[in-house]
Automatic annotation (TrEMBL):
This is Uncharacterized protein. The chain crosses the membrane at residues 12-32, 39-63, 93-115, 127-145, 181-199, 211-232, 252-271, 283-303, 315-346. Keywords: Membrane, Transmembrane, Transmembrane helix. It comes from the Bacteria. It comes from Spirosoma fluviale.
Length: 356
């Protein structure tokens, strides 16, 4: 029976939220080293406020697991689990503990790391609090899951539900994260790791700013498929978007904000790994230029009638041409101006032809 429960709840939970976990790992361990994580944990162990913040995040994660268990128990294909309550209570609760421990494995692992550090620094008060919170979260999850099993009526227990309206700029990023997580992770991992490598390569030899521009070019080209994904998303789920009474400038502004959010991790990477010989304003100009060029790529890729082979040929030609221009010393502000003007101009043309 435990094998069935693990397949229904544990495997399905991690498979459905794989993108979220990968993004969290990329953000957490992409920007913070193990030493920095240890310093952060040490600070939390000595600060009740930071420790309470960590516990609050763990509580939110528990609510997510409880909500998932409730949803799966109510799914038509899992109604056979209603007979699970006929199993004797001690055995049933033991199985629920196994399921809940597996669901809480990420925070239990992180909590174990915190306990190990607390032991080294002899922070027995913090250690006790961490252990009690982890035990409390596990017991709470087991109790809520078993209660839902014994009371299948959805109205018998209502978990807190928060409805947060999303702005249009968040529609596609949310969809991308939830439904195409692998594409999101691969795109951002390629772009961010590439920029990290270029920034760390810069001080090792007699390079100039053209190396950073080449890295930017490759990072932008790593987003070539995003425009097509946005187009497919809007033509499938937002059929009325083209007929809404928005001006062309308003539409362009919404796409600008959406791609600014998508392009934001690259700014954090550049700021975090900025070579000492490069001024901060150049990094900002570099990032702004990339923002304009992914907007231009969006405008170019948005029409669904585009030929994939022609698109790939154009991308390859653009890479070769861009590389030559960088080698000849075309400055970053020219790239910035051309990217933004091209994005604005082509978007305006597209709006005229497609009610964009």
């Amino acid at each position: 029976m435990l094998t069935v429960l693990n397949r229904v709840f544990v495997s399905a939970f991690y498979a459905r939220n794989a993108g979220t976990f990968l993004v969290i790992l990329l953000v957490a361990f992409g920007f913070l080293s193990a030493v920095e994580h240890k310093a952060l944990i040490t600070a939390a162990l000595g600060s009740p406020l930071l420790l309470a913040l960590v516990f609050g995040l763990w509580g939110l994660y528990l609510l997510k697991t409880v909500s998932f268990v409730r949803q799966e128990l109510g799914a038509p294909e899992h109604l056979f689990l209603q007979t699970f309550w006929l199993i004797p209570t001690p055995a049933r609760l033991t199985m629920w503990f196994g399921v809940q421990l597996a669901l809480l494995f990420p925070i239990i692992t992180y909590g174990g790391w915190m306990v190990q550090i607390a032991t080294v620094y002899r922070r027995w008060d913090s250690l006790t609090a961490i252990v009690l919170v982890l035990v409390g979260l596990t017991i709470t999850g087991v109790a809520l899951a078993d209660y839902r099993l014994r009371h299948p009526n959805p109205g018998s227990l209502q978990l807190p539900y928060v409805s947060i309206p999303l702005r249009y700029e968040l529609f596609f990023p949310t969809y991308w994260l939830r439904h195409e997580p692998l594409s999101l992770v691969l795109t951002k991992a390629f772009s961010c790791l590439l920029l990290v490598g270029v920034c760390r390569l810069y001080p090792t030899d007699d390079y100039d700013q053209r190396l950073l521009l080449i890295g930017l070019l490759l990072a932008v080209l790593g987003h070539t498929q995003v425009g097509g994904q946005v187009s497919a998303f809007e033509h499938k789920y937002l059929l009325l978007l083209q007929n809404l009474p928005f001006t062309q400038l308003q539409r362009f502004g919404r796409y600008t904000l959406m791609y600014g959010l998508i392009w934001l991790p690259e700014l954090l990477v550049l700021l975090r790994n900025c070579p000492t010989d490069i001024r901060l304003d150049y990094i900002l100009w570099l990032w702004l230029a990339g923002w304009g060029w992914i907007l231009l790529l969006h405008a170019l890729a948005y029409p669904q009638t585009i030929d994939p082979e022609r698109w790939l040929s154009g991308i390859l030609a653009g890479f070769i041409g861009g590389l030559l221009l960088i080698m000849f010393g075309l400055p970053v502000y020219i790239w910035l101006i051309v990217g933004w003007l091209g994005a604005l101009g082509y978007s305006y043309r597209l709006a005229k032809g497609l009610s964009f």
